[in-house]
Amino acid sequence: MKEELKALVEEATKAIEEKTDLKSLEELRVKYLGKKGKITAFKKNISKLPNEEKPMAGKLINETSREVEKILEKRKEIIKKELLEKKIKEEKIDVTANFDIYETGHFSVINQTMAELEEIFQNMGFDVVEGPEIDTVKNVFDDLNSPKNHPSRSLSDTFYIDEDTLLRPHTSSMQIRVMNEGKLPIKMVSAGRVFRNDEVDATHSPMFHQLECLVVDENASLANLKSTLETFIKEMFGNDMKMRYRPHHFPFTEPSLEVDVTCPSCGGKGCPACSNTGWSMELLGGGMVHPNVLENCGIDSEKYTGFAFGLGVDRIAMVKYGLDDIRLLFDNDKRFIKQF
Ligand code: PHE
């Protein structure tokens, strides 16, 4: 019996070593140590042995069972460890991997255009200033010399928060903020969002972007304004871009003007997009700072003059990239965004 048990242990050990998963290991345990198992079978035969041999045989069988049990446990631990290692290896995240599913984003066309504009003006020696989107009626209208009955003040044109505060309908309030700081001369630009109660169409949006420019100095002139604008248009659109000035009216500039450029759709020949004029929609409004505005900010209008303009960033982007609808800029359609 001893020899048989020994052979059984050898057989079991060999089988156990070959197993690589817990399920087949459990099957082996049943095969040898289960109720109908090969080793258990020996126990059933003890009763047939002579009495004096019974204790020794029982001991031997128990020892054999324990030995096989031990080998099974050992193998079980090894398999568990291997499975864990395999799992860790498989789940490891390779941070250096370049997965195509992740796309790198980029700044929107508007932010790209705004950054480009700021750079052009910085290269011309302008400071870049930031200001709030919510401003006071005083900064937005009163100190900008807007008459109390000016249409842009009405609720149907402008979003009020209360009587004295509103979402700025233009960046010109930044002129007042910077002049009130009391440092002269001034040479600044300030870009950001503005809000108007406008119906949405191909060229209008209730939220759009402007860049305000203000120069206040002892000899600032209309000639300076024109040369600044012409330098800027060439930098932004290249030397071939033509521009034209049209007289206009703003309460805070005198004289006032508006600027158009060559129609981006037809290059100036005339087409449906420009109603056959060959010119774009107006890109900016500007003029010489009204003396009342300077005085409202405590600046001596006998000594100082200024020029200012506000340009539509969205319209600049539309001309630059040949877009026929402002809504493209805000729709967040990936097919559009990806092109920039
Ligand atoms: N604020 C004007 C507008 O929104 C533009 C402007 C700015 C005109 C500065 C003159 C001077 O249309």
From TrEMBL:
GO MF terms here are: ATP binding; catalytic activity, acting on a protein; magnesium ion binding; phenylalanine-tRNA ligase activity; transferase activity; tRNA binding
A matching Pfam family: tRNA-synt_2d
Could you tell me what reaction this enzyme catalyses?
tRNA(Phe) + L-phenylalanine + ATP = L-phenylalanyl-tRNA(Phe) + AMP + diphosphate + H(+)
| UniProt keyword terms in alphabetical order | Aminoacyl-tRNA synthetase, ATP-binding, Cytoplasm, Ligase, Magnesium, Metal-binding, Nucleotide-binding, Protein biosynthesis
Read off the InterPro entries from this record: aa-tRNA-synth_II, aa-tRNA-synth_II/BPL/LPL, Phe-tRNA-synth_IIc_asu, Phe-tRNA_ligase_II_N, Phe_tRNA_ligase_alpha1_bac, Phenylalanyl-tRNA_Synthase, tRNA-bd_arm
Show the Gene3D superfamilies listed in the entry.
Bira Bifunctional Protein, Domain 2
- Aminoacyl-transfer RNA synthetases class-II family profile domain location is 107-331
Compartments where found: Cytoplasm
CDD domains membership: PheRS_alpha_core (cd00496)
Name one process (GO BP) from the record. phenylalanyl-tRNA aminoacylation
Top-rank taxon of the source lineage equals Bacteria
Could you confirm whether the keyword RNA-binding appears in this record?
no
Q: How is the cofactor bound?
A: Binds 2 magnesium ions per tetramer.
EC top class, in one word? Answer: ligase
The EC number(s) attached to this protein equal 6.1.1.20
Family named by the database record: Belongs to the class-II aminoacyl-tRNA synthetase family. Phe-tRNA synthetase alpha subunit type 1 subfamily.
- Oligomer status and interactors: Tetramer of two alpha and two beta subunits.
| NCBIfam families noted in UniProt | pheS
* Name this protein carries in UniProt: Phenylalanine--tRNA ligase alpha subunit
Name of the gene: pheS
